[in-house]
C-alpha cells in the first residue's frame, strides 16, 4: 500500500499494480532506452501513477508469479 500525495508520481512495472483509488491518474508509458528495454527485467511498459490517492502494489509481477 502506498499513499501518493497530490502531484506525486510513481512509476512501476505494470504487472506489480494490484489496485488504485479512482482519483489516482494512471498512464502506460514505454520504457526509454534500449539498455533498459533489454536488461531492465521489467518489460517494455510501465505504469505512471500520479496522486493523490492510494495504490496497492505487489512485489512480484503476475507473469513471474505464474511462471514460478
Report on this structure.
This protein is an alpha+beta fold and 68 residues long. It has two helices and six strands, in the order ββββαββα. The chain has helices at 34-39, 62-67, and strands at 2-4, 9-13, 17-20, 25-30, 45-50, 53-57. The strands form two sheets. The chain has a three-stranded antiparallel sheet with strand order 1-6-3, with no helix packed on it. A three-stranded antiparallel sheet has the order 2-5-4, with no helix packed on it. The mean pLDDT is 82.
What is the structure about, briefly put?
With 68 residues, the protein is of the alpha+beta class.
Keywords:
three-stranded antiparallel sheet, 68 residues, 18% helix, single chain, globular, 2 helices, alpha+beta
**Total count of strands:** 6
As residue ranges, the low-confidence spans are none
Q: Main β-sheet, in a few words?
A: 3 strands, antiparallel
Note the overall shape: globular
Q: What class would the helix/strand composition place it in?
A: alpha+beta
Q: Give the amount of beta strand, in percent.
A: 35-45%
Q: Helical element count?
A: 2
Amino acid at each position: 500500500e502506498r499513499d501518493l500525495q497530490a502531484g506525486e508520481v510513481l512509476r512501476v512495472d505494470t504487472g506489480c499494480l494490484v489496485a488504485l483509488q479512482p482519483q489516482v491518474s494512471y498512464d502506460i508509458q514505454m520504457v526509454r532506452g534500449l539498455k533498459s528495454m533489454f536488461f531492465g527485467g521489467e518489460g517494455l511498459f510501465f505504469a505512471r501513477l500520479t496522486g493523490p490517492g492510494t495504490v496497492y502494489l505487489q512485489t512480484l509481477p503476475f507473469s513471474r508469479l505464474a511462471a514460478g
